[in-house]
Amino acid sequence: MLNICITADHELFFGDNYVPEEDVLIKPTYNLMDMLGENGASLVIMSDVLSIFRYRELGMNEFPESMEEQLVYAIKNGHDVQLHIHSHWINSTYSNGKWEFDYSKYKIHDLGFEDRRDGTPSAADVIRNGKKYLEDLLIPVDSSYVCRAFRAGGWNLMPERELLKALLNEGIWIDTSIFKGGRLETGIHGFDYTNVPESINWWIDPDMGIEHMAQMDDDAVFEMVIGSCYKMPGLLVKKIENSLLGRIRKKRLSETPPRGTAFADAQGGTLSEFAKKLGNYLGQPLMLSYDGVCKEVMLGIVKHYLKSYDCENNDYYLSVIGHPKSMGNIALLELEGFCRRINRDYKSIVRFVNTSEIKFQKR
Ligand SMILES: [Zn+2]
């Protein structure tokens, strides 16, 4: 069986947020959960818990309350909630109605793994506190709730050794940060997932690293990879198809206006910056994502997995990634179309699951 986990990075924009938090994140996430529920799927909310902590520290309680209410709603309604960390919240400040984000702590590694004398949290503290927070909030709602999965902010899992050890120390044994073929070096992002094992999923021993397949045991992390296509004939054609279909649909339907920007605009508009962005785009794999990927192309990626791996005789797990903050009405319709096609044509070989349904539950 090919088991698909539809995940959502549950977070605000880290540049500007043009509308209130409720409209940026909370409402689109409810829409997403409800649509998936009607189509026989559940959502795995990867919740950016450090944003909740930082709002509270600064005495802003309304948004954390909405976040928590949403996480409780998710668990009550058969969805799932797991851990996503954007460590730059720790040093970010708020003035004149606007966040000033400190990207120098954008990678969780930037917090360091050693114990701190100055009382600021290390990466290991943040993971421990995040897991504890989710379990304290959600076990009273469902006694079987476990925080078992992690996604690194900005997909920054590398260097992985200490990070994976810190996750295992807290009993988090699933990672879903990697997309095969991904490579990005921007100063705040730094990873290279071009040499990972061929298999859809694999176990990672922190001492051996992500490029080696380890045995399943208590000292290994299960990689529930984000679906992607790279090194595939016709990949560029697929990218062009996706962008054309996207344009046609935007013309036909009125698209929701953008609710924010990814980063405070550091890009500028010079030719070399443009070439860099274009190079990044062309060099990146096509991700199994509802962030601007049309249903036909998402389906094409799933078909590629079905063709390349023996899903009849093995259980594989794949993540779909997306961001409610940037999801407009078209993306919601595309994802709905994708779910309906899977349910109609692939029911015998593809099913939607969340992390509690992964077969070899370790804990
Ligand atoms: Zn994120």
Overall description:
Strands 1, 2, 3, 6, 7, 10, 11, 14 and 15 form a nine-stranded mixed sheet that branches. The protein has helices at residues 21-38, 49-57, 62-76, 123-138, 161-169, 235-252, 271-283, 295-308, 329-345; strands spanning 2-10, 43-48, 80-85, 93-95, 98-100, 149-152, 174-175, 183-185, 190-192, 202-204, 221-223, 228-229, 286-287, 316-320, 350-352. The two termini are 22 Å apart. α1 runs parallel beside α3 and α8 (295-308) runs parallel beside α9. The protein has 363 residues and is an alpha/beta fold. It has nine helices and 15 strands. The radius of gyration is 20 Å and the shape is globular. The chain has a single domain (2-357), classed as Uncharacterised protein PF12979, DUF3863 (TIM Barrel). The model has no long low-confidence stretch (mean pLDDT 91). The structure holds zinc ion. Zinc ion binds next to loops. This is Polysaccharide deacetylase. It comes from Peptoclostridium acidaminophilum DSM 3953.
